[in-house]
Amino acid sequence: MNFELSKSLEILARTPQVLDALLNGLSKEWIENNEGENTWSPFDIVGHLIFGEKTDWMVRIKTILSESENRLFEPFDRFAQLTENQEKTISELIHEFKELRKRNLNELNTLNITSNDLNRTGIHPEFGEVNLKQLISTWAVHDLGHLAQISRVMAKQYKNEVGPWIDYLGVLKK
């Protein structure tokens, strides 16, 4: 599948509703348990998505589209959520994520991105030169990856409970 902004927006716009449907109202064991030491719970993952909405995606998009000669991205703290939001509930986090994503997608739409804009570049601190098309594609895939991660983390909570069906549950083998 080739990149189309509208196709990316289909995923980006749905992620908040998927999180809401999947996580809101669940017992704390589903929300707070992880896969073991140095792994993330669904709560942590939603916090990570929030931090990205605040400091990463739109900030980098605007950096690429700016007229500034300095198009170097600030490094992204992939673990900031582990010290932020700890006093909030999952419902509060999902609500915050919904609001941030809505705001970011509205702002993205006002940028009237053209096909020429998609080839404009910024400088990633680790990868070097990246273009807008790659950044927006990554944003959508990042969402999908974390939705899959949440499902995997939750499934593993019953790893010892499924008995012989474990052989047919690939999600438990990762």
What's this, in brief?
With 174 residues, the chain is mostly helical. It has helices at residues 5-23, 28-32, 42-55, 57-65, 90-110, 132-156, and strands at residues 121-124, 128-131.
How are the SSEs placed, and which strands pair?
Blueprint (H helix, E strand, L loop, with lengths): L4 H19 L4 H5 L9 H14 L1 H9 L24 H21 L10 E4 L3 E4 H25 L18
Antiparallel strand pairs: 1-2
Helix pairs in contact: 1-5, 1-6, 3-4, 3-5, 4-6
Q: How would you portray this structure in words?
A:
- With 174 residues, the protein is mostly helical.
- 53% of the residues lie in helices and 5% in strands.
- It has helices at residues 5-23, 28-32, 42-55, 57-65, 90-110, 132-156; strands spanning 121-124, 128-131.
- The protein has a two-stranded antiparallel ribbon.
- The longest helix has 25 residues, at 132-156.
- The chain is elongated and about 55 Å long.
Strand content: under 5%
- What's the helical proportion of residues? 40-55%
Order of helices and strands: HHHHHEEH
Total beta-strand segments? 2
Mean residue pLDDT: 93
- Physical arrangement of strands within the biggest beta sheet: 1-2
Sheet with the most strands, sense and barrel status: 2 strands, antiparallel
Termini separation: 26 Å
Provide the gyration radius in Å: 18 Å
Instruction: Kindly report the oligomeric state of this protein.
Output: single chain
Key descriptive features of the protein:
174 residues; two-stranded antiparallel ribbon; 5% strand
